[in-house]
Design brief:
Blueprint lengths: L5 H29 L6 H19 L2 H12 L8 H18 L3 H24 L2 H22 L5 H9 L5 H24 L15 H15 L6 E5 L5 E4 L2 E6 L6 H19 L16 H15 L3 H14 L9 H8 L16 H16 L8 H13 L25 H20 L3 H6 L4 H10 L9 H9 L6 H14 L2
Parallel strand pairs: 1-3
Antiparallel strand pairs: 2-3
Helix pairs in contact: 1-2, 1-3, 2-5, 3-4, 5-6, 6-7, 8-16, 8-20, 9-10, 10-11, 11-16, 12-13, 14-15, 14-16, 16-20
Length: 502
């Protein structure tokens, strides 16, 4: 152990300080998306920029570089535990990255984030891409600058992907996505060709928002999302933020689409669980954070889809839903609800896509981000490229850009490189499911009884409690004994849909 080396203790103290400031920034960002007055954008952009500049300055303090050098040069470093070595590695990685970024660029990106997101919200409401385009162009330019500063010798998109999924390259993602795409297409075709097409119009029955809030409370309690250390709020686009004792999730309610928020809450609660379950012993250390966005998405999508769209879940929750909604769905039986929850139908909107077609939405965005970062497409061309790909992959015609290129907040937020993690999460889930079924074969029966405990405990022991002890590719291999592979996820969907669609 090196925990008693003075410079190591100082280094961890610096890391804690940075995590506290980053947490402060995330809560201010949450307020920006939820309760901030509409007219506060310009002021908030200055506040967020100031905070990011402060965090950047603290991250690149030369004293951190000196402490890193001192700790690694110490003869005692050879006795460091895995967690201590990982802490040093993660601090070094962050220090190396941030020292390459000019302070004025960090400030510009933070300020542009607030302005761009505000423009996106207004443009989406007005269904007018021209409102968003100039701010998107500025954001893209700034993110390209960021990538060049981080590593001028690497393709920009490889640099950006590594920020969300460390240790993986664009070519590696493509090598996983190609068999994923090839495996999904025939499943989609079989589902669409099936004659099992019941009337699912009952899903559009109005459910008052206050009733949907009670549904959300039931779901959060089921998955053990701790609302004494978290909360649920409403925003345009569902998201999760925060850590440890303050983890906040958001949803968006549609009166005539109860399933939209139902699954958004399960999804975000899956994210929330991961943040809440990081080991207490590692709090305020880099190792005491979540592993990667791909693993994060695996946790949210496992709760939302593998559990939440299972027949077992609806065996328990359908009677609960009927009771909460006062009989709105009184005539719906288990077979019909299971079929509705797993309806495979090409959709224009990613967050409302079914479990089978969802990954193709991610592939589309992955391909578009490559075009953007390789400068093979301009911002002006994005709506047309998007629409052409939607027609090619889904046979859908986009009527306006708010249901097309402007449907997601990610690009407005500068999160280029994040999208692949959604489909990587699916891939990891297929592998985790195989292992969980081996370790906890009774999990399905427990869910049917309204007990999430076996799933929760397996995820906590195998994923959550590992914190950031290793990169995602290593974590997946440690849990399953195998490298990332799309085949288990494809097999899971093939078996499931064969039963549902006869």
């Amino acid at each position: 152990m090196i925990a008693m080396i003075d410079d190591y203790k100082k280094l961890i103290g610096r890391a804690k300080e940075l995590m506290v400031w980053s947490g402060t920034s995330s809560i201010i960002g949450w307020d920006f998306e939820t309760y901030m007055p509409k007219g506060g954008t310009e002021q908030r952009s200055m506040q967020m920029a100031a905070l990011e500049q402060l965090i950047h300055e603290k991250t690149i303090d030369p004293e951190i570089g000196r402490l890193l050098g001192s700790v690694k040069a110490s003869p005692k470093f050879k006795d460091a535990t895995d967690a201590e070595r990982r802490n040093v590695h993660l601090i070094q990685k962050a220090y190396d990255e941030q020292t390459k970024l000019p302070a004025d660029l960090v400030e510009k990106i933070a300020r542009q984030y607030a302005i761009s997101v505000d423009a996106w919200k207004r443009a989406k409401a007005a269904k007018d891409f021209s409102i968003f385009k100039p701010e998107l162009e500025k954001t893209i330019g700034l993110i390209k600058q960021k990538a060049r500063h981080l590593d001028p010798n690497k393709p920009a998109y490889d640099v950006l992907v590594d920020l969300f999924e460390p240790g993986i390259t664009v070519s590696q993602i493509a090598s996983v996505f190609e068999p994923l795409k090839k495996g999904l297409i025939p499943i989609i075709k079989r589902c669409l060709d099936s004659k099992n097409k019941p009337d699912l119009s009952f899903l559009n029955r109005p459910v008052p928002i206050d009733v949907q809030r009670r549904i959300s409370d039931k779901l959060m309690a089921f998955v053990r999302y701790d609302t004494t250390h978290g909360r649920l709020d409403e925003t345009e686009h569902p998201f999760t933020t925060g850590m440890y004792d303050d983890v906040r999730i958001c949803t968006h309610y549609h009166e005539k689409n109860v399933m939209s928020s139902l699954y958004a809450v399960l999804h975000e609660a899956g994210h929330g669980l991961y943040e809440q379950n990081v080991p207490v012993r590692w709090r305020w250390q880099p190792v005491g954070t979540t592993c990667s966005m791909g693993i994060h998405e695996s946790q949210s999508r496992l709760v939302e889809n593998i559990v939440g769209r299972s027949r077992a879940f609806w065996q328990w929750f359908l009677p609960e839903l009927k009771a909460i909604t006062g009989g709105v769905f009184a005539d719906v039986d288990l077979d019909l609800m299971e079929r509705a929850a797993n309806d495979v139908k090409p959709s224009k909107i990613r967050i409302e896509a079914d479990e089978v077609t969802y990954s193709l939405h991610v592939v589309l965005r992955f391909e578009m981000e490559q075009l953007i970062m390789e400068e093979r497409a301009t911002a002006s061309e994005l709506p047309q490229i998007w629409n052409e790909k939607m027609d090619k992959y889904f046979g859908l015609e986009i009527e306006h850009d708010s249901e097309g290129v402007m449907q997601d907040t990610h690009w407005a937020s500068g999160l280029f490189g994040y999208f692949p993690d959604y489909a990587l999460g699916n891939v990891y889930d297929g592998m985790f499911l195989d292992k969980m079924a081996e370790d906890v074969p009774d999990w399905v029966h427990a869910v049917a009884r309204g007990e999430f405990g076996p799933v929760h405990d397996w995820l906590r022991a195998n994923v959550h409690e590992k914190g950031n002890l290793m990169d995602s590719v290593d974590l997946v291999k440690a849990v399953t004994g195998k490298p990332a592979d799309a085949a288990p996820f494809v097999r899971y969907l093939d078996r499931k849909m064969a039963k549902i669609y006869n």
